[in-house]
């Protein structure tokens, strides 16, 4: 997510509450939205039929303020199902434009609105700028890891994710950011194959990056940063996440595009260290992986967002190989009222859930 103080003004001019008409006008002066790609002859097998159609809930999780936290948005969620509970860590922004994180847990989605927030800066170890979390259980260490943006990539560990006060002091992945790191590295996540742990991230610059280390060396030993995917900035922006597709040797990456409104595109690969192929029918503004052009709202829900922005697919498990079931795709995402015009750090993002809609197939 674009939280750098250096870029906040420029990004807010593009995004802060723009109306549909303004967004459309911007797209005529910027690079055109992504158009659908054709699949290579040697590309991996497509994991699901396209085009996709989704149904969205209304807002499930809103900002909740307390005596010391005047919260205007909750966003960038990471989520696992563990011990019969949903566990969510997410970014928060307050009225001063400061970024931090929050923890929520509940048994059922019907309970989400009533979940009591724990603000991470109540943990003395995590009182400064930390946001855009990614949560997973690293089986070799028998520990939970929370990876986040500080601006550099950092992590904390705990034995119990239901006790956010127990997260350890942040540690750096890199002693020094390596050559090839963009000026604004953001939105980090980890995924492992049989031999390596990969750190993937974006740079708000049209590039998707990766670094890796051997499983036995994790979290130390991350190597050089290289570009995994490169496109135009409007069409490959931020909010990336990579998954293993259940029952296959294929991986899926979804990355948020910037314009005309926030939406997700998808790529597949047979190798985390290999070439990524756009998923035809899930990689353009007209036919996105998830965007306003393929999302409708549940009966009784008034459409409330044009952005289908930074989120995570619900996983089939919680370990270091984040795995999704293509037959049960659901995306916890952030959206907002497009009529509200504010700086980016004051936009009123909330969380909602997309479910794959098979009614028309």
Question: Can you describe what's shown?
Answer:
- The protein is built from two helices and 22 strands.
- The chain is globular, with a radius of gyration of 19 Å.
- It has one domain (8-356): Glycosyl hydrolase domain, family 43 (Tachylectin-2, Chain A).
- It is mainly beta and 361 residues long.
- It is 5% helix and 37% strand.
- The strands form five sheets. The protein has a five-stranded mixed β-sheet, with no helix packed on it. The protein has a five-stranded mixed β-sheet with strand order 17-16-15-14-20, with no helix packed on it. A four-stranded antiparallel β-sheet has the order 2-3-4-5, with no helix packed on it.
- The protein has helices at residues 8-15, 20-29; strands at residues 54-56, 71-82, 85-94, 99-106, 118-119, 131-138, 143-149, 153-158, 171-172, 186-192, 196-202, 207-214, 226-230, 238-245, 251-257, 263-269, 277-278, 295-297, 309-313, 323-324, 330-335, 350-356.
């Amino acid at each position: 997510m674009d939280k750098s103080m250096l870029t906040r003004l420029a990004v807010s001019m593009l995004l802060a509450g723009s109306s549909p008409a303004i967004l459309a006008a911007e797209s005529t002066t910027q690079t055109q939205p992504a158009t659908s790609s054709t699949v290579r002859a040697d590309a991996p097998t497509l994991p699901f039929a396209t085009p996709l159609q989704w149904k969205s809930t209304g807002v499930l999780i809103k900002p909740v303020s307390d005596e010391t936290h005047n919260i205007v948005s909750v966003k960038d969620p990471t989520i696992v199902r563990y011990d019969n509970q949903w566990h969510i860590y997410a970014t928060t922004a307050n009225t001063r434009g400061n970024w931090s994180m929050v923890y929520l847990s509940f048994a059922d989605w019907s309970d989400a609105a009533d979940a009591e927030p724990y603000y991470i800066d109540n943990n003395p170890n995590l009182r400064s700028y930390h946001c855009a979390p990614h949560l997973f259980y690293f089986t070799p260490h028998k520990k939970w890891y929370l990876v986040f943006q500080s601006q550099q990539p950092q992590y904390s560990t705990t034995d119990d994710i239901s006790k956010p006060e127990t997260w350890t002091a942040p540690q750096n992945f890199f002693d020094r950011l390596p050559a090839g790191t963009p000026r604004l590295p953001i939105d980090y996540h980890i995924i492992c194959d049989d031999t390596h742990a990969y750190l993937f991230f974006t740079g708000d610059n049209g590039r998707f990056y990766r670094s890796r280390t051997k499983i036995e060396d994790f979290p130390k030993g991350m190597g050089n940063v290289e570009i995994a995917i490169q496109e135009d900035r409007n069409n490959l922006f931020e909010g990336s996440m990579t998954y293993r597709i259940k029952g296959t040797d294929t991986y899926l990456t979804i990355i948020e595009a910037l314009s005309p409104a926030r939406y997700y595109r998808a790529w597949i690969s047979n190798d985390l260290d290999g070439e990524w192929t756009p998923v035809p029918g899930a990689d353009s503004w007209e036919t996105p992986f998830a965007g306003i052009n393929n999302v409708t709202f549940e009966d009784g829900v008034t459409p409330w967002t044009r952005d289908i922005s930074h989120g995570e697919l619900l996983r089939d498990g919680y370990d270091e190989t984040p795995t999704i079931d293509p037959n049960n795709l659901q995306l916890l995402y952030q959206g907002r009222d497009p009529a509200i015009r504010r700086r980016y750090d004051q936009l009123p993002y909330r969380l909602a859930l997309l479910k794959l809609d098979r009614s028309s197939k």
